[in-house]
């Protein structure tokens, strides 16, 4: 189950940033700023994808869990679940 | 890549301007702003240059215009600032303009002087009337209440010509009357008493209205006084004292008829003066209004003229003294425009021989030109503040457009704050064409110039805020938390599972203050939160333990990737300057060094994330310990991350150790071998010394006819030195310093990137404290009073958020992001030793009235 719930976001976000970073540059109209816009698209895609990837990888196999106060446990149990 | 990747290629051109057309050609060039002039007369002082007379004339005209503008603003006439910029006037028009302006100035000064005189006169007459009016009551009063003057009953009846004394029976009674300042009255009276010892009688009264003092122009209160004295000597003394105290003395009439006569005369004169004064003021206003229409265009024209003459002073004359020669730096892409501008100028001046130009080879380094638009200008300024790029080197500003806001956002990471910043920047951007913003004061001006930077910073902060799951210190639960609390209860599990784990039930929960979820229990952890940090961590007491580990690893990963990118950009520089040996001997060892140590660190981090989980958490080794053990080779090693780790690490260490001496000695030894192994070609020209050893550009600027045949095999670097100038010691020293700096810098710079973690932690904590101290207090009050309390609490929260979190933290993160770019990123490849290209352009002259000239 964890594998599934990990695979889906990865696919979605990889395709999303891949579209922006790899497919996007082909659609930039010709003009004096073409190089700048392509660089911006690729850099944005790389930075944002990397940042998100680090965040999800760090949480994939947690070595310890959150420590909650008993009030919070009661609240979360009855409101979120 | 666009021209933002590298600066533009430049060439040195010589312009031959015929003396008749020089002015017009320069005017055409200044309108277009194409080229930068070089000063050919550097050792000539500014007073000995050719066009000094014309420059002086321009300055004289400027002085007159400044005086005009002053007078116009003083008269509160609106000054229209035209939109279009008129061209510089041809020399024939200048004389005419000069005459006009001088005449105008003379007339203005005269009229103003006359006006002042008239006003002064008017004031004196007004004072006289007041004095006459008030002293009438004195005399009446004296006659009524002080019978002591009955000895001289015919006082009123005598008609006298002289006000100071009366000739009668040897007894002289005189009067002095006038006005005196309010502040001086007491001292005046005391002085009179002391000096004249009772032979005078002083009466004074305050004037109700304050009048203007004709000399100083201030409006003050006056006292009217009347001194009657007995004796000529006393009279002189009194007059001297009056002079001393700056009183305004007016003739005192001795009879009532005389007084009436004088008053009537004064009244008519005052009326006349008023009319004349009005007429003068109207005339003056008319003149100023007429001048105000054209003064703006005149100011611009004179500025342009002065700039042209300054530039003409930089040119030199050729041998026949008929032609001016100018040397300019021109971008190669604009050579055609330059020719066309010269033709246009020659045509306008109607000369038979047109001016022309040709390019000349040069060994000097041209200035750096990078064309920016209003979006990229801000980022280019950030890079230029560190140092203007050397000619034709890779420009980091292209990448800074995204990496700078991104690194800022990593340190700032809050959804709410980022959105507010984005809105503020959007406000500035949408209103950027409003004229008011361009001329506002310093601080707002700085924000305005950086509006696009702020915009991107805000946008990225919104994204990182979403990933950190932090919005005004609260988390947003969009997808549902993946940590399940109910699964920790023993009721959720079968009997056999219960025995192996420590589970909860209601009494356990009620009696323990804090409890920790265990991801090893099945069902508790259901996978990573799809976007960002799980919202349950915001409720946890051990939140920082998890976040610190995450953010530290993230900072190190981002930092190493940023630095590796910097080294890679250096490869582009080596390729461009045709020094392929640099790639093999410098860039590859640098990359190997960095990647074998720190790239391996990244590998270990990601490996541990992927492989170790809650079940194996007891054996999960600490990355830090493993990393240190890589270098120390302890006797009792830990179990390690993966099998075969020791061998892999040994190999990596060997590669690193080998790359270090290559980095230190490779390049100097290679150059030495080139120098000795192949004897010197290409030095048959005398005086072929290069200013900079590192650039091939100067050589390529030499005209094609100058390069010998068969030089292609020397492209690797023999060209860069003469036989006499190869200094092995210096090259070795430079390379050793560079290598040491690089190797030590790798470690210290990687640690420096930990500031990404530190600042984001500080921001999150500050935000949390603000919420806990303010909003929570306000939200906890239940009653209706609480609603009223919430209003000032929210106001205070908003103000503190803006000042502390947005401005202070924003500035702090901005500064640290700049530091990371300037030091850690740019010292991997950027030299930054160039000069900026400043073209001769009229648009660079300031167009405001109050600013001084900017000579291009």
UniProtKB/TrEMBL annotation, chain A:
Q: InterPro entries under this entry?
A: ATPase_V0-cplx_e1/e2_su (IPR008389), ATPase_V0-cplx_e1/e2_su_met (IPR017385)
Keywords assigned by UniProt, alphabetized = Hydrogen ion transport, Ion transport, Membrane, Transmembrane, Transmembrane helix, Transport
- An MF annotation (GO) of this entry: proton-transporting ATPase activity, rotational mechanism
The compartments listed are:
Membrane
> Gene Ontology cellular component?
proton-transporting V-type ATPase, V0 domain
List where the protein spans the membrane.
6-28, 35-58
Primary location: membrane
Kindly give the membrane topology term recorded for this protein.
Answer: Multi-pass membrane protein
**What role does it play?**
Subunit of the V0 complex of vacuolar(H+)-ATPase (V-ATPase), a multisubunit enzyme composed of a peripheral complex (V1) that hydrolyzes ATP and a membrane integral complex (V0) that translocates protons. V-ATPase is responsible for acidifying and maintaining the pH of intracellular compartments and in some cell types, is targeted to the plasma membrane, where it is responsible for acidifying the extracellular environment.
What family name appears in the similarity comment?
Belongs to the V-ATPase e1/e2 subunit family.
User: In its UniProt entry, what is this protein called?
Assistant: V-type proton ATPase subunit
Q: What is the scientific name of the source organism? A: Sciurus vulgaris (Eurasian red squirrel)
Its taxonomic placement starts with: Eukaryota, Metazoa, Chordata, Craniata, Vertebrata
UniProtKB/TrEMBL annotation, chain B:
* Keyword Ion transport included in the entry's annotation: yes
Domain of life per record: Eukaryota
Presence of keyword Membrane: yes
Gene Ontology molecular-function annotations: ATPase binding; proton-transporting ATPase activity, rotational mechanism
- Tell me which Pfam families the record gives: V_ATPase_I (PF01496)
Please name the GO terms of the biological process aspect recorded for this protein, alphabetically.
cellular response to increased oxygen levels; intracellular iron ion homeostasis; vacuolar acidification
Q: Where are the transmembrane segments?
A: 406-430, 451-468, 554-572, 584-610, 651-674, 786-808
Output the Gene Ontology cellular-component terms.
acrosomal vesicle; focal adhesion; perinuclear region of cytoplasm; plasma membrane; vacuolar proton-transporting V-type ATPase, V0 domain
Q: Where in the cell is it found?
A: Membrane
Its keywords, alphabetically, are: Coiled coil, Hydrogen ion transport, Ion transport, Membrane, Transmembrane, Transmembrane helix, Transport
Q: What does this protein do?
A: Essential component of the vacuolar proton pump (V-ATPase), a multimeric enzyme that catalyzes the translocation of protons across the membranes. Required for assembly and activity of the V-ATPase.
Q: What does the similarity note say? A: Belongs to the V-ATPase 116 kDa subunit family.
The molecule here is called V-type proton ATPase subunit a
Q: What organism is the protein native to?
A: Sciurus vulgaris
């Amino acid at each position: 189950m964890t594998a599934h719930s990990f695979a889906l976001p990865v696919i979605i976000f990889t395709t999303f940033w891949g579209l922006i970073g790899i497919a996007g540059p082909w659609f930039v109209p010709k003009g004096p700023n073409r190089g700048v816009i392509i660089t911006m698209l690729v850099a944005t895609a790389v930075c944002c994808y990397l940042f998100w990837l680090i965040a999800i990888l760090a949480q994939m196999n947690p070595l310890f869990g959150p420590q909650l106060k008993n009030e919070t446990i009661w609240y979360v149990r009855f409101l979120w679940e | 890549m666009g021209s933002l990747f590298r600066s533009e290629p430049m060439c040195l051109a010589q312009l031959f301007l015929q003396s008749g057309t020089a002015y017009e050609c320069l005017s055409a060039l200044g309108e277009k702003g194409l080229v930068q002039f070089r000063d050919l007369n550097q050792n000539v002082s500014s007073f000995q240059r050719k066009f000094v007379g014309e420059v002086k004339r321009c300055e004289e005209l400027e002085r007159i215009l400044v005086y005009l503008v002053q007078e116009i603003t003083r008269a509160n006439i609106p000054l229209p600032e035209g939109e279009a910029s008129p061209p510089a006037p041809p020399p024939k028009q200048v004389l005419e303009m000069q005459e006009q302006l001088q005449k105008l100035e003379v007339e203005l000064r005269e009229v103003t002087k006359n006006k002042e005189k008239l006003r002064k006169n008017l004031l004196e007459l007004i004072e006289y009337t007041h004095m006459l009016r008030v002293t009438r009551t004195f005399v009446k009063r004296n006659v009524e209440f002080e019978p002591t003057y009955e000895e001289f009953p015919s006082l009123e009846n005598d008609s006298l010509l002289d006000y100071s004394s009366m000739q009668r029976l040897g007894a002289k009674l005189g009067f002095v009357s006038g006005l005196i300042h309010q502040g001086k009255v007491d001292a005046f009276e005391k002085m009179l008493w002391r000096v004249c010892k009772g032979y005078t009688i002083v009466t004074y009264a305050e004037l109700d209205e304050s009048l203007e003092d004709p000399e100083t122009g201030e409006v003050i209160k006056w006292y009217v006084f009347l001194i009657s004295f007995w004796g000529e000597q006393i009279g002189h003394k009194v007059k001297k004292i009056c002079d001393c105290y700056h009183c305004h003395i007016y003739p005192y009439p001795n009879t009532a008829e005389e007084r009436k006569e004088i008053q009537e005369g004064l009244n008519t004169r005052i009326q006349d003066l008023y009319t004349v004064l009005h007429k003068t003021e109207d005339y003056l206003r008319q003149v100023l209004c007429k001048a105000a229409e054209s003064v703006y265009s005149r100011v611009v024209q004179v500025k342009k003229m002065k700039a042209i003459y300054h530039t003409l002073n930089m040119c030199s004359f050729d041998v026949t003294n008929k032609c001016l020669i100018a040397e300019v730096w021109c971008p190669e892409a604009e050579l055609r425009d330059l020719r066309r501008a010269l033709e246009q100028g020659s045509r306008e001046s109607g000369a038979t021989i047109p001016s022309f130009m040709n390019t000349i080879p040069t060994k000097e380094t041209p200035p750096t030109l990078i064309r920016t638009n209003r979006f990229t200008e801000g980022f280019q300024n950030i890079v230029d503040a560190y140092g203007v790029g050397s000619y034709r080197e890779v420009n980091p500003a292209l990448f800074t457009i995204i990496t700078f806001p991104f690194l800022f956002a990593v340190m700032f990471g809050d959804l709410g704050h980022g959105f507010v910043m984005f809105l503020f920047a959007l406000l500035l951007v949408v209103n950027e064409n409003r004229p008011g913003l361009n001329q506002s004061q310093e601080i707002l001006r700085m924000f305005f110039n950086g509006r696009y930077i702020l915009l991107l910073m805000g946008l990225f902060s919104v994204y990182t805020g979403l990933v950190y799951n932090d919005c005004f210190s609260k988390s947003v639960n969009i997808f549902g938390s993946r940590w399940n609390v109910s699964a920790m209860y023993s009721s959720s599990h079968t009997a056999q599972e219960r025995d192996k784990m420590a589970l909860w039930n209601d009494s356990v929960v009620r009696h323990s203050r804090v409890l920790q979820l265990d991801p090893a229990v099945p069902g508790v952890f259901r996978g990573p939160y799809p976007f960002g940090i799980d919202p349950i961590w915001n409720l946890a007491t051990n939140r920082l333990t998890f976040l610190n580990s995450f953010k530290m690893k993230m900072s190190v990963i981002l930092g190493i990737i940023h630095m590796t990118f910097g080294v890679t950009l250096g490869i582009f520089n080596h390729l461009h300057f045709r020094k392929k040996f640099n790639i093999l001997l410098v860039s590859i060892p640098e990359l190997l060094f960095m990647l074998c140590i720190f790239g391996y660190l990244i590998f270990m981090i990601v490996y541990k994330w992927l492989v170790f989980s809650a079940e194996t958490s007891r054996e999960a080794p600490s990355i830090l310990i493993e990393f240190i053990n890589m270098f120390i080779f302890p006797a009792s090693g830990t179990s390690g991350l993966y099998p075969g780790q020791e061998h892999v690490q040994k190999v990596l260490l060997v590669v690193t150790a080998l790359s270090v001496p290559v980095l230190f000695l490779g390049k100097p030894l290679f150059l030495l071998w080139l120098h000795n192994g192949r004897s010197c070609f290409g030095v048959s020209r005398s005086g072929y010394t290069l200013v900079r050893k590192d650039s091939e550009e100067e050589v390529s600027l030499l005209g094609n006819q100058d390069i010998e045949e068969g030089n292609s095999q020397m492209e690797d670097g023999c060209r860069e030195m003469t036989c006499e100038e190869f200094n092995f010691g210096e090259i070795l020293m430079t390379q050793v310093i560079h290598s040491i700096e690089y190797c030590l810098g790798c470690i210290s710079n990687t640690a420096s990137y930990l500031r990404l973690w530190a600042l984001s932690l500080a921001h999150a904590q500050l935000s949390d404290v603000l919420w806990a101290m303010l909003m929570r207090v306000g939200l906890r009050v239940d009653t209706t009073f609480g609603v009223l309390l919430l209003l000032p609490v929210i106001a205070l929260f908003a103000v503190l958020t803006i000042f502390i979190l947005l401005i202070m933290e924003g500035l702090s993160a901005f500064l640290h992001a700049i530091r990371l770019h300037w030091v850690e990123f740019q010292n991997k490849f950027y030299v930054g030793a160039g000069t900026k290209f400043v073209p001769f352009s009229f648009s660079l002259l300031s167009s405001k009235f109050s600013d001084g000239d900017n000579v291009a």
